[in-house]
Amino acid sequence: MKNFFLTLCSLLIVFVLFEAGLRLTNYKALLSVNTLPKDYMKKDKEIGFDIAENFGVKKAFLTGDMYSYDVWSNELGCFDKPYEKKKSEDYVLLLGDSFTQYATEFDYKWGTQIEKILGKRVLKCGVRGFGTKQELIKGRRVVKKIGKSPSLIVVGWYWNDIEDDYLFPRRTTYDGLTVDKVDFQDIEKGTLKYRTEEEIQTIGKFWQKYCDTHDNFNYKRLRSFKCFLKRNVVTWNIFKEVIRNNETVRKTFFSKLMGSPRKPGSSIENLPRHPWFQEAISKNLDNIAELRNFSETQGANFLVVIIPKKEHVYSFMLPSEEQEYQDSVRKRMITFFNNQGINYLDLKEGFQKEADLSPRPWLDSKKDLYWKYDGHWNINGNMLAGKLVSKHIKENKLTSKAPKRVSSLD
């Protein structure tokens, strides 16, 4: 019995030392439940939420890809260095969602690359979770605060902007974290449900206790224990990531504890099938047109950058039928841009020229253009986007001031 306890104590000491060592590596990112720091987002009555102004430097995480990076905000509520007002300084305003603000450290983001290549100040004001309507309002606010019009407004458009505009204002904050405020009541019909403040608080509390936003699941004690392990034990998280993707083992022994396996793809793949989605596209296109109109009133040129999904670039990750649905949306948008005279750049072709398109189960975060698990650009993708967008801006001379159109927005 004595030898048993000695062996047990030795194993425990080894485990503690091993766990402590892992916390000094990138594996520490696995402990994060929240991808952005608490209170990085603030509540906003008009648009649901926004980046808090003058937020100090803290870590953000891509948990599954074991990647962490610093985030902060300036006095404009943008993930950017402080803006120093100079009446003579010309600038470009970059708006967008998570592809513009999230998932890669600041020095490698595509907005930072554009700034370096053009040699012109780029205000990088994307916000994770924003749709086009929120970006329009954000852009108006930033220009008003600065008191000077940009020479160019660039909008990074991504596919879930259609859904975000349809659900506007989709999210709010609870205790410093973003929570869904509007969701689908019936996704087939496109009907919506609007959560009360009490329901939002309930969702926030469930997230804090169970690392889950739903209150209708079973095994609450098990999930509470799982959440504790998630937040506190690196070794557990490594074990979980390895096991959860072995479907045979997961189904046999760990289905309740491990959760669903990671799969390539997106939650919005099937949206174009629903009748209401055509109305949603129309709303989104109207908001893009409003952004163009705002640019014109400011005497600024306007550029929409169409950001391809991971599955659009690496088409082997998506069934051909789904590709057809997504292509139909893309064609409708491009037709609209051409009819409206809106300058746009579709990055799909440029990305596919640089991508390794050979079929394989997973991408390589270091070699490919997107993260292995997360759907956003990695460092390579951001660098390429910055290069392609800068080239388009230069070739079309978009940083030259456009004629100012008089409007009630002035």
Q: Would you kindly provide a written description of the structure presented here, covering whatever features stand out?
A:
The chain has 410 residues and is an alpha/beta fold. It has a domain of 281 residues: Rossmann fold (3-Layer(aba) Sandwich), CATH 3.40.50. It is built from 14 helices and 13 strands. A 5-stranded parallel beta sheet has the order 6-5-7-12-13, sandwiched between helices. It has a two-stranded antiparallel sheet with strand order 1-2. It has a two-stranded antiparallel ribbon with strand order 3-4. It is globular, with a radius of gyration of 23 Å. It starts with a helix and ends in a 15-residue tail after the last helix. The C terminus is likely disordered.
Topology, pairings included?
Blueprint: H1 2-22, E1 41-44, E2 48-51, E3 58-62, E4 67-71, E5 91-95, H2 98-101, H3 110-118, E6 121-124, H4 132-146, E7 152-157, H5 160-166, E8 171-174, E9 177-180, E10 182-186, E11 191-194, H6 197-210, H7 220-232, H8 234-244, H9 247-258, H10 276-297, E12 301-306, H11 310-313, H12 320-340, E13 344-346, H13 348-354, H14 379-395
Parallel strand pairs: 5-6, 5-7, 7-12, 12-13
Antiparallel strand pairs: 1-2, 3-4, 8-9, 10-11
Radius of gyration: 23 Å
Under the CATH scheme, which architecture of the domain at 32-190 and 274-395 would be assigned? 3-Layer(aba) Sandwich
Question: CATH superfamily of the domain at 32-190 and 274-395, called what?
Answer: SGNH hydrolase
Number of H/I helices: 14
CATH class of the domain at 32-190 and 274-395: Alpha Beta
H/E element order:
HEEEEEHHEHEHEEEEHHHHHEHHEHH
How many strand elements?
A: 13
Low-confidence runs (pLDDT<50, min 5 residues)? Answer: 261-267, 406-410
Specify the overall morphology: globular
Largest sheet: number of strands, sense, barrel closure:
5 strands, parallel
Major β-sheet strand ordering: 6-5-7-12-13
**On the 0-100 scale, what is the average pLDDT?**
85
Question: Within the CATH hierarchy, at the fold level, what is the topology of the domain at 32-190 and 274-395?
Answer: Rossmann fold
The share of residues in extended strands comes to: 5-15%
| End-to-end separation | 83 Å
What structural class do helix, strand and pairing data support?
alpha/beta
Quaternary status: single chain
Report helical residue fraction.
Answer: 40-55%
